[in-house]
Design brief:
By secondary structure, the protein is α/β, with parallel strands linked by helices. Helices cover 48% and strands 21% of the residues. It is built from five helices and five strands; from the N terminus they run βαβαβαβααβ. Strands 3-2-1-4-5 form a five-stranded parallel β-sheet, sandwiched between helices. Helix 3 runs parallel beside helix 5. The longest helix has 24 residues. The two termini are 22 Å apart.
Length: 141
């Protein structure tokens, strides 16, 4: 299958970095554009007054999202086209929204490695994306 656009969510984790390497390989082979998205999860600020401390914490999280994307660029030895997107919200929801907006053919993402009770309680972003995406999803363990 030839891909035109590959979405790669990144959170800076080792699981995400493995997925990034797979996405770079697929992009090199198919010529697909990579859309890299980093989500600033802002659940902690919802409902809180936006004082200086909450604002500063939110800014730090946004900066970390931008750093995650820069780290992805460092893996790009072949100068493949990578478009950066930073968004706030629930990771699974944002990933699915961006996939739809950008009309991606494939989502390549890492698994969190959670199992058992942790997975039951917290859920899995990868599970949510796999079960709701309108395109193919490759989950890299």
């Amino acid at each position: 299958m030839m891909y035109k656009k590959i979405l790669v969510p990144t959170d800076g984790s080792e699981f995400a970095k493995k997925a990034q390497k797979h996405a770079l390989f697929l992009s090199k082979v198919t010529g697909a554009e990579i859309i890299a998205v980093s989500v600033t999860e802002n659940n902690f600020v919802n409902g809180l007054p936006l004082d200086d401390e909450v604002y500063q914490l939110n800014q730090i999280l946004k900066e970390r999202s931008e750093e995650n994307l820069k780290e992805f660029d460092e893996l790009n030895e072949d100068d493949l086209k990578i478009t950066h997107i930073v968004r706030e919200g629930s990771p699974a929801k944002v990933i699915l929204e961006v996939a739809s907006e950008e009309a991606v053919d494939l989502i390549v993402m890492g698994s969190s490695g959670k199992s058992g009770f942790d997975r039951f309680i917290m859920g899995s972003v990868a599970d949510k994306v796999v079960n709701s995406a309108n395109c193919a999803v490759l989950v890299v363990h």
